Amino acid sequence: MNRIIIVLIVIFHLNIVKAVNECPTNWANYRDKCFTTVIGKTTQHDSLVKCQEMNASLVTIRSVEENKFITNYIKAKSMTGFWLGASRQNGNHHYTWTDGSELTYTIWEKSHPLNNDYTKCAYITEDSFWVSYPCDIGNFDTICEKRVQYDCSNMAKYVPTLYSQWIQECIIKESEKKIIIQLLNITDKLEKSLTSTSKNITDRFEEFKLTIKELENRYDVEKDEMENRLSKIDSNANRNTQNLNTTLQKVSLII
Q: Is Plastid tagged as a keyword (predicted)?
């Protein structure tokens, strides 16, 4: 029953609230990010500027899967290296991404990162490894990234799990946003109503099963009583028959 309710809710969401994740033209999509390349050897700073001009940032890699995607992306472009959005400050051996966040995943080339005074940036090779490198030497191309945008008006593939976050991500007019929020409230109420209805039906069904069980028990008791009565009647009938036969025999002897 619960599966049926879940399916109904999903269908309802699909018909009312659908969105498609969209990347700009010539950008590649991976999960919640869009990527594009800017070909031309440059310094890391100039790569940062090129990305910022597209309202993007230098590539950041947070997992082994994302690193694999970027590596395949590089190979498809037949390039040898791209700047990463990772760097460290003077006197600090600790790398961070351009947004200040920690490097929670790394795959440094053997002996890297180097901890000298001039290798403070990093690039990714076509073999997927990261190499520390001087920031001001223009030897690598650029990969920019930006967040996927969700177009709520083009309802096709995407059903959100976190409504409030999804609404903020969507590119829609304020009037359309209010309508979608209202629809989401309706679906939430419907889900609660269906859950309550399901519980009521389940409870009633359990009561029905108990009633059936009681009737079955009563039937078994009455059946046993009836069989006992029939057995007694049978026994009495046999006794009466025997008595009658005995009496008839006595009468025949007298006659």
A: no
